[in-house]
Amino acid sequence: MNERPIDDRRTVKVSKYLSRHLRHQPERIGLAPDPAGWVEIDALIAAAAAHGFPFTREELDHVVAANDKQRFAIEGGRIRASQGHSIEVDLGLPPVTPPPYLYHGTVARNLDAIRAQGLRPMNRHDVHLSADRETATRVGARRGRPVVLAVDAGAMHRDGHVFRVSANGVWLTQAVPPRYLRFPGPR
Fold it and tell me: Is 146 helix (H, G, I), strand (E, B) or coil?
């Protein structure tokens, strides 16, 4: 394969390809992750090339290292997504005590549903929360003008809700009932 320069556009393309096939649709390219979501790197590279999206190990390593959200982990010749799967995986993350408050970035059009139903995982296994408002603001901004909700994680934990934290610092919980949410501004 010809060596390509690793520019920002290529990095984003490879990252999106990895997210799609490690988090959501590994079967589309013939991958079968183990129960913890790991796949052999050589198998991933071969499968991607066989399905019309060749990339090098150098590009893969660059994408993993350069990703500001640390979406992927490499260990012992294998790779997996750190969180955000819609396929069944057990990331092996132990329950941990959360900080008193965590944050969730969204957009105004979702607020009525969130007020009624709380935060639900939608097509993922868990609700994703951030440890700080700045990160939650960036997450919400991907879909429009961000709105940041505070989650009373301390009260949730005291009430028996389980929290885990991924390798890249994303806080995970099954759902956040409305009573634990603090909405900005007037209702």
Answer: strand
**Domain assignment of residue 3, yes or no:** no
Strand, helix or coil for residue 114: helix
When divided into structural domains, the chain yields a total of: 2
Q: What angle do CA 80, 85, 124 make, to 5 degrees?
A: 165
Domain with residue 172: its CATH number is 3.20.170.30
Q: How far does Cα 158 stand from its chain's mean position? A: 25
Q: Are 112 and 79 in contact (CB under 8 A)?
A: no
The 10s digit of each residue's pLDDT in 87-126 is 888 888 899 999 999 999 999 999 999 999 999 988 778 8
The CATH number of residue 49's host domain is 1.10.10.970
What pTM does this model have? 0.71
